[in-house]
Specification:
The complex is a heterodimer of chains A (484) and B (215). In chain A, 50% of the residues lie in helices and 11% in strands. With 484 residues, chain A is an alpha/beta fold. The mean pLDDT of chain A is 92. With 215 residues, chain B is an alpha/beta fold. The chains are: A alpha/beta (484), B alpha/beta (215). At the A-B interface, helix 2, helix 3, helix 4, helix 8 and helix 10 of A face helix 1, helix 5, strand 9 and strand 10 of B.
Chain lengths: 484, 215
């Protein structure tokens, strides 16, 4: 996937004036937070489960090497194979190698963000394979040559007519105009994808969890596409980041209580599938080969440093569903695979802060992301860490650097500071006129476009203090220009 | 140095250990302790059964109470007629499903794995989990995994005595069978998607209807 993180500002500006996108984004704000809140309220033990889930993830990360080795042993013991990849290129090569050895033509895919991270589809096409996304949202995106804008609802930025157009163009130009209802569109995708499931030689899924105890990979879906992807073809490849490791089946159960509630507000997804090895000798169906590709791609570098807690992430998407910035601009503006607060932390690690310096700034630090995170990742702190790196690395725009340097210079010189503050207060009071409201402010046109700035009293706090006119106590008359 | 050694070595170094110095974590794997269980996963058998039914229905599953497994055949025949499909079902080779007199109910039945053209399939669950109304199916010669995903209408038989409280109890049952089967499927309601404008539609790629026959 192309890295467009440097386009963040222009992408955000375009998103804000894109009426169609804004309409689509309303679906997030209206839907996800309320559903999550209801599901969480339905589990009175939520905070205890959440603490335990957080402890499980921390334990798994602190013992990651051992659990990865246990996982590998168990995969091999149950007849599967494990492939280790340091980076995206190694992972792509390993997966293409498996497809080639299987003599594959068509490769079906369940929804997997890590395969987006490594740019798998384009590579498979280059290598002569035909990858087919089977998650409804991902399939629509693939037809449109589009990219996911949300980690669990990838096509959330699209409206129904755009989906109808895509099907009409790629399935049947004669598709009837009244088949553009939700049910009709879904039935159309089901009909077409059924054939692809059956003709596939290799099925690739992600993994929500990799269980060390048993060598099991877990996927959660609502559609059942991930299951048809892995039970029909001859070869199943599960692709996972090394951070997906969980010690035991019981630990996985705790995390599953957190995952769907945080993601879609369901108590549990329709399908939760635990896959261990290839089909057994006596099994009538299932894949003959089972491969797991374990990908590092910058994850192990997060251990032992400020970002370690990010490895807890279970990719539920709650942080973006509750983020006012994501809610205003959608996922594409973030420019890569992972949007929202979790993306603002992960993307700089994976593509470099020098190419993504704007992302950690795309936050008001309102803290909702940390509040709803099921594994209590301190996302604002981690974004602050990246802001510091951005500053120290000198990746900020020149205007921002000069502005900050100027501010620091003035702030360390009280006499100059007071004189400037006095001047500013007076100018603003004059601009405010009789109404006490500043309607237009040079250099802050964006702020005053939608609201007035209450003008200050004309004298600074320090001046008032010196003159003995102390700030009024509660109940006393307020100086002109302030408001309750 | 292989990629494997490189990744494991970097993990150990970053965690402040030597590249050849693994962490010890055997106890957790041996003891696999359970986490906090929700109160709704605990109760007397009839409470758990009632909760299972309530939760399965809340997830858009249909639940039919049967006095014995023999009633499964007329139920499937009725469902076929109601769903507007031929009286034909693919039934898993599970011996517990030998008992119903399928032919007497007017059903043509095949005992095999699923095929893409199958519209009605019948399976037997290993157990049910009350906390979310979830069915647990374990793949094997008696329980082909394709039956769970290919049909439009999936009928799953479940003994009322096999309704457990929590996922953790279900794992105890699975563990009692020895090594894990190729696939353990937790199924909670019929297939669905909200990928088009966040509007929920049943029957995405898997079954449009899930009927649980509680025996």
């Amino acid at each position: 996937m192309d890295i467009l993180t440097q386009r963040f500002k222009s992408g955000a500006r375009e998103a804000l004036v894109d009426a169609r996108l804004q309409k689509a984004l309303e679906n997030i704000q209206r839907g996800f937070p309320g559903k999550r809140a209801k599901a969480v309220a339905g589990l009175p033990e939520w905070e205890r489960v959440r603490d335990h889930g957080t402890a499980i993830r921390d334990h798994a990360i602190a013992h990651l090497d051992t659990y990865l080795e246990c996982f590998e042993q168990q995969v091999v013991r149950s007849g599967g194979q494990v492939h280790w990849a340091r980076d995206a290129a190694e992972a792509r090569t390993a997966i293409a190698g498996i497809c080639r050895a299987a003599g594959a033509k068509t490769v079906t895919k369940g929804k997997s963000m890590v395969t987006e991270e490594i740019g798998l589809n384009d590579f498979l096409v280059e290598q002569g394979f035909t990858p087919v996304e089977t998650d409804l949202g991902e399939y629509i995106l693939q037809l449109r040559g589009d990219r996911p804008s949300h980690i669990i609802a990838p096509a959330i930025h699209l409206r129904r007519d755009q989906i109808f157009e895509a099907f009409q163009r790629h399935h049947d130009p004669a598709m009837h105009a009244n088949s553009d209802g939700h049910a009709e569109l879904q039935a159309e995708a089901r009909r077409v994808l059924r054939k692809r499931f059956v003709e596939a030689d290799v099925g690739i899924t992600g993994a929500n969890f990799c269980i060390a105890e048993t060598g099991t990979t877990v996927i959660v879906t609502n559609e059942g596409n991930g299951d048809l992807t892995q039970c029909l073809p001859r070869v199943h490849v599960a692709v996972a980041g090394i951070d997906k490791i969980v010690p035991t089946l019981e630990d996985t159960s705790t995390l599953l209580r957190l995952l769907a509630r945080s993601a879609t507000g369901q108590d549990i997804t329709v399908y939760t599938t635990f896959s261990t090895g290839p089909r057994r000798a006596e099994d009538p169906d299932g894949p003959e080969e089972f491969h797991v590709v374990l990908i590092d791609n910058g994850r192990s570098d997060m251990l032992g440093g400020e970002l370690q807690s990010m490895l807890r992430c279970i990719r539920c998407g709650a942080c973006m569903n509750h983020c006012p910035v994501y809610g205003a601009i959608g996922g594409h503006a973030y420019g890569w695979v992972y949007p929202g607060p979790m993306g603002a932390v992960l993307t700089p690690q994976m593509v470099g802060i020098e190419r993504s310096a704007n992302l950690p700034n795309a936050s008001t630090f309102c803290g909702r992301c940390a509040e709803v995170c099921p594994v209590q990742i301190p996302l604002p702190d981690l974004m602050r860490y990246w802001r510091e790196q951005e500053y120290e690395g000198g990746y900020q725009p020149r205007v921002a650097r000069w502005g900050l340097a100027g501010w620091a210079w003035v702030a360390r010189r009280p006499a100059i500071y007071h004189r400037l503050a006095r001047l500013g207060a007076r100018v603003l009071a004059v601009l405010g006129g009789r109404t006490g409201r500043v309607r237009r402010l040079p250099l802050a046109g964006g702020w005053t476009a939608g609201r007035d700035l209450p003008a200050p009293a004309g004298r600074t706090f320090t001046d008032q203090w010196r003159a003995g006119t102390r700030p009024p106590r509660a109940g006393a008359a307020r100086p002109r220009g302030t408001r309750s | 140095m292989s990629s494997r050694d490189h990744v494991l070595g970097n993990i150990r170094t970053r965690l402040g250990r030597g590249a050849e110095d693994p962490a010890h974590a055997d106890a957790r794997l041996r003891e696999h302790p359970a986490g906090p269980l929700p109160a709704r996963a605990v109760g007397a058998p009839d409470e758990l059964r009632a909760r299972f039914v309530e939760m399965a229905r809340a997830a858009s599953g249909e639940v039919e109470m049967l006095a014995d497994v023999g009633e499964l055949a007329p139920l499937v025949a009725r469902l076929c007629a109601g769903h507007g499909v031929a009286a034909h079902a693919t039934v898993s080779p599970d011996t517990r499903l030998d008992a119903p007199d399928w032919a007497a109910a007017g059903l043509e039945v095949e005992r095999r794995a699923g095929r893409p053209e199958d519209r009605v399939c019948v399976s037997h669950a290993l157990c049910g989990v009350a906390e979310t109304g979830t069915l647990v199916l374990a793949s094997g010669p008696d329980s082909p995994v394709t039956l769970n995903f290919l049909p439009e209408l999936h009928v799953v038989a479940l003994g009322a005595g096999q309704v457990l409280g929590s996922y953790e109890e279900a794992w105890q049952v699975v563990r009692a069978h020895g090594a894990l089967p190729r696939t353990v499927n937790w199924i909670t309601g019929p297939s669905r998607s909200a990928d088009i404008e966040q509007t929920l539609q049943l029957g995405a790629h898997g079954p449009v209807r899930l009927v649980i026959a509680l025996i």
